[in-house]
Structures are given as structure tokens and as C-alpha cells.
Amino acid sequence: MEYWSAFFVGGFICGVAQLFMDYKFSQMQVVIGLVLAGVVLGALGVYDWLVDIAGMGALLPMSGFGYWLIKGVIATTEQNVIEAGANVFRLVGVEIVAMIVLSFFTALICKPKG
Amino acid sequence: MRLRDNYRQAVKKFQPKPSYVANSLKAFFIGGGLSVVAEVLRAQFRVNLPSLAAEQAVLLLFIGAAVVLTAIGVYDEFSQFAGAGSTMLITWFANSLTSAALEHRSEGVVSGIAGHMFKVGGAALVYGIVAAYLFGLVYFMR
Predict the structure, then answer these.
(1) Domain count of chain A?
(2) Which of B35, B56, B124 is facing A60, going by the closest CB pair?
(3) Nearest-angstrom CA–CA distance, B131 and B121
(4) Looking at CB atoms within 10 Å, which of A13, B11, B65, B121 has the fewest?
(5) If you measure CA to CA, which chain B residue comes closest to A68?
(6) At what angle do helices A27-44 and A2-23 cross, to 10 degrees?
(7) How many angstroms separate the Cα of B6 from the Cα of each of B11, B12, B137?
(8) Which residue, among B15, B127, B97, B26, has the nearest Cα to A34 in the 3D structure?
(9) In angstroms, what separates the C-alpha of B49 from chain A's closest C-alpha?
(10) Which own/partner contact pairs does B112-117 have at CB distance under 8 Å and 24+ positions apart?
(11) Looking at CA atoms only, how far is residue A45 from chain B in angstroms?
């Protein structure tokens, strides 16, 4: 059952984004809009519900990235304004650091194709 | 402004009409399929790991796969075929960093690879971080 909901939620986000891309907006604008939507919905608490239903179907698109940005700030046990900036990277830091390190060594080793 | 609008209307007749339904369905099935793969992987990781670590491990696997596919040159073709089915996922981010770094590889290690790495993907990061920080401040100040 959870596989079906992951399929439909993940597919729905991608399909709607494709409609936006075909209609008017550039790819970059759609991606940024998706990240912003994740941040706003995460702040309102809607995205928690979506992740409960769909699991990775909601976390794998870029809106899941925005959701983790805001969730790192909000869902801390110590409510501290000063550390809000550090907590932005609490959850997504794993991904960002992995991406930077992997792509750095990839660029060192490989040659561009095509 | 007037000139730009005129140009747009003049060009519009000769542009091929995008097939909205077909593209959207393709993105739907590919994005949904990748989500199901991620969900299956999460169920596997969930046996030994706590929930958050399992989700992060799945995302790390997808990032690693995207970087490797970009390095061997397969990701471009897949991305062109899939449309939003691949560009709206976290793999877009990994692909944009890696391809920008690879593209400017010839300019040197410092100003080429490191300087241009966030050329494309940085925009999403900037907007996400600014919005998250502002919303977090509002959340604590209320």
C-alpha cells in the first residue's frame, strides 16, 4: 500500500512540474518553486502528513530537500534562535557534503563526456 | 518590451507544440517508479537503521548513482528522455554540481572545479536556505 502512495505522490509532483515546464517556466524556476513549496508546506506542517503517507515519494523530489531544510530548524528540542542558522544544515548537511565531495573527486578523476 | 512580445508571437507559429499529456505522463511514471525504488530501498535499510538514517542512506545512494551516471555520460540522455521525472528529484542537484565541475575541469582545480561547482545548483540552495532561515526565525519569534 505504501508503495502505491509513494508512486502516486512522487509521480504527481514530477508530472505537475513537467506541465509547468512545458507551459511557460524554465527548469530552474520550477525547481526553485518546488524547493520553496517544500519549505512553506513544511513550516505549515502539511508536508509532515505527506511524508507520513508517501515516505520516499515525498522526500525524493526537491520539495523534500526544502522540507528537510525547514524541519532541521523547527524540529529541535532546544528552541534557540541563535542556532537556527546552524540547524538549517542539520538534516540536509549529509546530502550536501556527500554531493560536494563526490563531485569534486569525480571532476578530478574523470573527463567530461559528450 | 514591445519588441520582445512581437518576437514571441512571430516565433510561436513555427515552434513545435509540446505534447503536454505525453510528456507529463512520462514524467509521472518515471518519477513514480524511482520513488517506488527508493521506498523499497528504505524498507531494506529500515531493518538495521533508525528511520531518519534509513531515509538519508537512500538519498545518499541516489546521489551516488547520479554522480556516477553523470561521470560516465549516461545521465544526460536519461534526463532528456525523462524530463521532469528526473530533473525534479534530488538527483538533479547531484547532476548539476557534478556536470558544472566536470565542465570547468580544464580551468584548473581551484578556479575551475571549486569555483564553478555551484554555478547551476546554487540557485536552489540559495532560495531554500533563505526561505528556511526566515521561516525558522518567524517560527521562533512568534
Answers:
(1) 1
(2) B35
(3) 16
(4) B11
(5) B132
(6) 130
(7) 9, 10, 45
(8) B127
(9) 16
(10) B113/A104, B113/A107, B113/A108, B114/A104, B117/A100, B117/A103, B117/A104, B117/A107
(11) 12
Of B59, B103, B117, the CB nearest to A112: B103
CA distance A52 to A2: 10
Name the amino acid, one letter, at A111: K
Q: Which residue has the cell 528540542?
A: A77
Inter-chain residue contact A18 with B29, CB threshold 8 Å: no
User: Is pTM, for the whole model, over 0.90?
Assistant: no
Instruction: Say if A44 falls within a structural domain.
Output: yes
CA distance A97 to B102: 17
DSSP 8-state class, residue B142 = -
Q: B69 and chain A: CB distance < 8 Å anywhere?
A: no
Annotate B8-70 with DSSP letters as a single string. HHHHHTTSPPP-HHHHHHHHHHHHHHHHHHHHHHHHHHTTTS-HHHHHHHHHHHHHHHHHHHH
Q: How near does any CA of chain A get to the CA of B60, in Å?
A: 6
Distance, CA of B74 to CA of B141 (rounded, Å)? 48
Structure confidence by residue, pLDDT tens digits, A78-114: 667 787 888 888 889 999 999 999 999 988 888 877 5
In tens, the pLDDT along A12-42 reads: 999 998 888 888 888 889 999 999 999 999 9
Q: Please give the grid coordinates belonging to residue A30.
A: 520550477
What is the C-alpha to C-alpha distance for residues A59 and A13, in angstroms, rounded to an integer? 11
Whole-complex ipTM: 0.90
Whether A19 sits inside 8 A of B20 (CB atoms) is yes
